[in-house]
Fold these 3 entries.
Entry 1:
Amino acid sequence: MFRYIPSKTAITEATISNARFAPSKRPVGIFLGGTSGIGEAMARQLATQTHGRAKIILLGRNEASAQRIIASFPKTDDSVPQDEPSDYSFIKLDATLMKEVRRVTDLLAKELVKINFIVTTTAFFDYGGREETCEGVDKKMACLFYARFKFIYDLVPLVQKAAGAGETTGITSIFAAGLGAAIDLDDLDMKKKYSKLRCRYQWATYTDAVFQEFAHRYPTLGFYHQMPGAVRTPMMTNHFGGNFFASMISFTIVSPAEAAQLMWWRMLDEDPKWKTGAHQVSHRGEELSNPFVTEGVPEAVWTHSEMVTSGASLNLHSGALICDSPKDHGGCLPNVRFRQPPILSPEIRRVTWTSASPFDHIYAGPLVKLNPSNMVFSPMPSKAAIAAATASNARFRPSTRPIGIFVGGTSGIGEAMATQLASQTRGRAKIILLGRNEASAQRIIAAFPRTDEGVPADEASDYSFVKVDALSMKEVRIVIVKLAQELPKINFMVFTQAFRDYGGRDETNEGIDKKAACYYYSRFRFICDLAPLVHKAADAGERTGISSIFAAGQGAAINLDDLDMKKSYSRLTCRLQWEFAHRYPLLGFYHQMPGVVRTPLVTNRFGGNFLASMLSFMMISPEEAAQLMWWRMLDDDPKWQTGAHQVSHHGDELSNPFVTEGVPEAVWTHSETVTWEASSKS
């Protein structure tokens, strides 16, 4: 029990060390479980330490408590610049429900430009056995592990942005560092064998395992699993005999304010060894270890956690209550629509999605089997597909440094895919962003993880930007020549450049319609000229892929006598016709449909954010789209590794009936002629 006895010396050292924290920019702190106890005390310390110059968001269930806390925080005066004053708020959240967690992380990801600190202190007061939520997750496990994991998983890119700007950052889970136990990889959800004590110790190992994986993926950030010791919080005192018990063991207890000093200590420590990596920290500021986080454990727990939290957030499991009335039925099947309306009984009150088959739906009455032939995919996102893609992509561990070219990589899906490659390889990648916005590119590159100084030059992080206007074939050609001369190989080419225009045909000075140049001709030219470098990487046994993110599955018949569409032009027709022209057998070529993604193309227009908020139920983030777009390029299944593929945003193989005999050759010849002649014009 002596491990829980506080050290007043440690508290004093922590207080002195923390006092040196004086940020030059207003920090943003998110406190999950911040309406009482240690979470409240840590939020209060940040507000006090910065003299009110902080943005603090408290998350929990008790709004009255949150408002009381916020009212007592110090506030800046009117002389402070507009982006620097006190900004305190509360968001109501039930952390036992992954759907609720996902709702809040989506909201925060849209509203915040950065996060400096994520502090998770959620607790669940219960002496009973296993008790499942309506999502099929044990309530204690949801609160103490899954919600914390999901919160960090979804918001860590915003912490990386703050770190990339040189600001102090930290992510902490206040729980049970140093108390880990061996885990059963065949029973990670603990449905076979469950006890409160076993759960507590195993969840400590889960936290250490995922924090180790987080640190691998985000090497510029620090992740701190901490043991607070015995603290006089409402969790201790708000039950029968609690105050009496606390007084009896007062010599072992610290106040929430003292615990806060200890929990902030290593996150704010100026010693470089504490600034990055995964740490298990005692309530005395000491580094602990967990011998049960052995080889393979971080990856297994990570994949399990991704699957559980992504699935639960959409009720993708047996037993979940999804609909409460017949009128809600359309929302129960978020990933499909029907060619013909299914026959549904008016008495239906509940729909359950079973994990056994996505086409089996259990109603309040008998089992109803929905015919897959009567269903077609819609633009609605599939969280199950995102979870499957994420788990599959996590297996990509290249033995040599990959080279990735991202045309349109300065925002949206292109940025997210480049960021994922950098994170997945822990900075061991050569990434070239191509586009028009150099400032955006430099911001993105600054946030990428980097290898340490001891790594050989040909294996170290290498990030750069090349400016190019994809509407100009001449510029495209100049950049291609430069890349062909400088690069020994290319592993991945990703094309996401877009052109926002609602008008009709609008030609460049090279005589090509601007939308056609952006969405098709420039992509074709890049691939045509640089594909030999992709073959070099493939010949060396390395993973490769060429992807055009556009409109797979939406092809239409074409007129071979009007391939440049000068005789008959409409925005819808040209969009559908360019799509099919990507269909030719090339080395690992993937034409992909991303679905509806919250990118600047959506939001950076009049009313864009309002539109996005109205359609949030059917939209995914660029990071989620990136997981889907990488999925089949990195898939270990041989059928995906070569050939031409049309891939839906659910990872399904699509087809195009309009690519008939003679069409690929005709379009290829036309494309070569147009792009070459345009690039040769003076």
Entry 2:
Amino acid sequence: MSFLSFPLWAVIAGAVCLAALLFGLQVLKARQKHVRIAAAGLWAQAARVTPLRVFRQRFQRWLAYLLILAIGLLLWAAGARPEITPGRDAVDHIFYLDASAGLTGRDDLAQARRALMADVRNTDPARRTVYLDGPVAAPLLQPGENPALLSRRLDGVRARLAPSSFAHAVANQELTGASASGRPTVVHYYGAWSGARDVTSTAGQRLVYGYLARPTLDNRGVVALGASPAASGDAGRADILVEAIGADGRPVPTDALRFSRDGRDVVVDILARPDGKLIVRDAVADGGLFAVRLARSDAFPADDQASLRLPDRRPVRVALSSGAPDAVARAVRLNPAFAVTAPKDAQVVVRRAGERFGEDRPALVVTQAGEQSAFVFTYGADEAEPDLSAALASLGISAVETQTLARTTRREVSAETRPGQQRGVAVWSALFDERGGFPAASGFPVFVSRTLSWLADTAPWIPYAQAGTDLTDQSDLYGLAADRRIADRALNGDLFLDQAGETRIGDLRVAVSLTDRTLTLDAARAVPADVSVTPVQGPTVDLLFILLVVIAGLLLLLEWRLQQRGAMA
């Protein structure tokens, strides 16, 4: 026998203190006494001579004291949460609660938690470890810890909208805990059967199922949502791919879907492809939140909706000074991704060195060839230094064009970086000479587009954001410079999207969706016949606690009954 809330010595000490307290209160209890007085005016004197409470006198009413003591001790023991200590075990036990999207249906998570708690209570404390599903398996209960801690830690657990990481955790040996080399291990799994599909028992490790989520036979879900530049050629719009399927894998009818932008339902122009996928055509790419959902939800809500924050392709406002090279001005005016505007309204300016024109804006500055490199990138004080290992290539200047520019200027063409208050790019004026050939090169419009986009720090083109995968940035494919926030995180391998919902990368907001075709189909499939759930080893409720409370209640009822019949004061 052990107690979850307090150690044994604290339970005994509390019981002794409770008995002493009740004894003292019973002694000091007011007692009725019949006193005869000669006159009514002597009642005050009689009260002083015969007080209601006297501590030093013979103890009476043993039955009342024993009853109240029994009730108090029973409630005290129930509050201490007694449990029968399981016997020693020669096998290590690892419990894994797969609180991923597979447990979002009905009350699957609550049932899995109850089964987990019952099994943990009936396992040797020194040989058990409990883990919670996540990008990395998180320990919830270490060997030897009190199961009461597990109950409290599970209170805040919610099923996350992400694929299961159980197979990954087993493959990468994240589930160590109580297990030791040379000792057999039993892994108890609580989740959706598909989460453990790729995990098999081995000679030293046996997999058992403690709880498996029930299937949603009529499940339907959104399994794809992504954006690409509009086929119409409008630079400020995007085409959105949407796919929703039923339990049989067939497409969901268009009228069973609802579309919204920034939380408001909208009517969209839809093109149905032969494969059943839908194309929402010419959606305004202004950074808004586009969402699609099922018109009627089912019992598995994890895949009933998906959302995507559209790329912001509104034209970059560019101001051109009178000294701006004609080739640059021509490339800006012909590119629908840019809009020529006044300096006070501009995001970026193009000017010559020394011109007092939009000096408080990021600028493409045309300079005379001097001691500095042909391309000088100035980066802001709050950002990391740009990587110049492939800077010119990323701006659309190939190695052949670099050699051609070097022959034309008779100088080495290179790039360098400098820190500053804001972004800027300084380029030799000789590179914009019409006779040099660079303005006529195929890569020149790309150079202008990507340079101005980098200066404006435009939003990246994120085609989709799927939970359980790395974030994808396709800015380079569509004439945008790679986003610095994503690039910095990519260097650290920190672009993994662990679950669906709104997330941030620096100040960049990203809407992540589940959109997992396999998960949607598996949620509708019944558990395979060769997969069986091990019966719960102990009661799913705390029987000792309930029994003690019930007995205390019965004794309280008995005390009330005896008092009503006059058998006890």
Entry 3:
Amino acid sequence: MKKVLLTVLLLSAAVMLSVSVTGAQSGLVYGYISPGPDTWYQRTVDGFSFGAERDGVEVVVLNSEYSVEKELENIDALINLGVDGIGMFSFNESGARIAAERANEAGIPLVTVDAVGSVLAAGVPLVAEIDFDWYSMGVSYADWMAENYPGERFVILTGNFEGIPSQRINAGMTERAAELGVNELVGIYDTDYNPATAVNVAQDLVQSGEEFGIMFVMDEDMAAAVIRMLENEGLLNDPIKVIAQNGSPAGIPLLQEGKLLYTISSSPGWEGLVAYLALHNNVIGHSDEMNQHFILPVIPVNEDNVDDPHIVVPWSPVPVYWEVTYQYFPQLLEYDPEFMAEIAAITPTLEPSSGS
């Protein structure tokens, strides 16, 4: 009956919502809400679905398309569908909290992605929050600037002023830079994660006559576009150095070519898989632990490690995801001892470390 109801409701929901469904055999159905069409968000969907496919779990994906109203509709739609669990990636802090509150009322387990601990801080119970340590990333950029380019002023082309990861990176970078007193901030500028907007902002800064030597760009799709503009203007690396965030397919070649000077590996696909595993462990009853916070590691990328997939974890799902999960969060694989043993045998040089 549940499957028949799900099918009927999905056909109705497809008229007004962005919906995709992956097939499955386990009888379990999870929902995943993505905030928008950006590549980062889609890769979290891919990682979540990668884990679900292995376990035979069906995934219903709804896209909020950066609309607060649509996001609320998506939360209610998944609850009305009666899914067994929900993965929630909101583009605003209140969306993640509201999803957790409504899921609790419906008795549906929920995990959040990139809410930066905001749901736990609000005191709303949930299975887990999955995050990168965005603040520490910001600190790492400030340390790198102070060590490599002391005295140079810097600008931040952030992703979205409302986005919590952007807020946390900005805070880590600016507060650490102020503490060190070596690099002065010129300003923080919104790009809405749009490469064309990032280029326009960068051009305006160049033409303003403002003196600065370092430009941080929040993702590498935007950084690639900014780098092309600076190359055309004859300004790349002399005087303007570009640093970015992600360790993405768009950024790694630029790092290897010396056009992008520093980045940090943060794979949204792996993050999506960790979110799936935290949820699945709860739904199948392997773990009843609540209010967990899984923080993926900060992994600086340089010329020496740029070719190591355990360091620059790929954005799109690959088998190495299981290996780095075994290394950092082995408890999430314990629900399937045979598979965990296979991963251990494949990666004998990796020792599991305590996670979460």
